[in-house]
Amino acid sequence: MKVTEVKIYVVDTGSFRPVIAEIITDEGLTGVGEGAVGFGVGCYAAAKMAEELAERFVVGKDPGEIQSIWNDFYYDTFWGKGAGAIFYAAASALEHGLWDIKGKALGVPVYELLGGKQREAVPVYANGWSEGKCVTPEDFARRAEEVYKKGFRSMKMYPMSQIDPVRHLNKHIKNRNVTKANFECAVKAVELVRETIGPECDLLVDVTAEGTADMMWRFGQAIEPYHIFWYEEAMDAFDVDAYQVIREKVNIPLATGERLYTRYGFRRLLESRAVDIVQPDPGTCGGILETFHIGAAAETYCARIAPHNCGGPVLTAVAIQLASCLGNLALQEIFPFHDPCHYEIVTDPYEFKIHDGVVDVPKALGLGIELNHAYVDPFLVGDVKET
Length: 387
Hints:
The protein is of the alpha/beta class.
């Protein structure tokens, strides 16, 4: 079997623009993957990078040689060593597609190729319920109650984030200038949400590295009474020394990692034991196998993993495969509250399969999804064919 064509899409759903790679083989099998730079900026740059990587290293190759192809990305591009979100979003999308094909070719879900499932159902936490929707503490409490009533018993909030007026997503604070008003409003939001959902529900707090170290440890201390499951991105993930400061002062498990890339990017963070939960994004850290390696490395430091999943339904499918087989899984992130068009990218999204706060481990082959071409085809931006 060999790859004969790779198509790249940037699917604009209004709020997100996930980068989708579709790999086509001479035997009719296809695979899909997603580069997780659909929010923020960079999606079209990642799409062009994916096109170039596909042309040089994927088309004409045996899709089963996943590690060899990935090592070409890493060693034979010069920029693969030390690269960041754009490069590894492209590499990740292509890598996902190769795993999807391999699972289909062998007649198994992807997790079976990584040692098999370790649970019957994946515990998920709800995200996206407050994005672009909450300003006041009362807004957060009202939305949290709605999420709780939908059966979720784990949810994440962004109490410090502002609202982007264009795409109605979170807008981050410039210059780390967390004001007294920002601080007090955020603490009150956490307090009201905890009162609303009760003591048994897991509440995760993400502050997206908004402030300075002194502000972030003070905020962490302020929310300690509300039994926070984890305190996420208190500081930039690459600032390991800052996490040591936070750890010394805050009695909440710390989580970070969505903006670190490849297993090499996580080494110092793990060696320092600065965090309790690592959060590689399989759509930007290098792909499925890189995420698995990072989870295994975390396990050697008695740390847990929670794959970051802020993307479209293709990335969710990837994350569910990993969450099915990672032994040290904490929780799996999922966004079930986007506009309906967000989920039209695939024919059978896992976001629609949530029940009682879990997603059952899938049995479908590969990643268990297929592209909805009626929806995605108009968003084609690149097409690389064997010559």
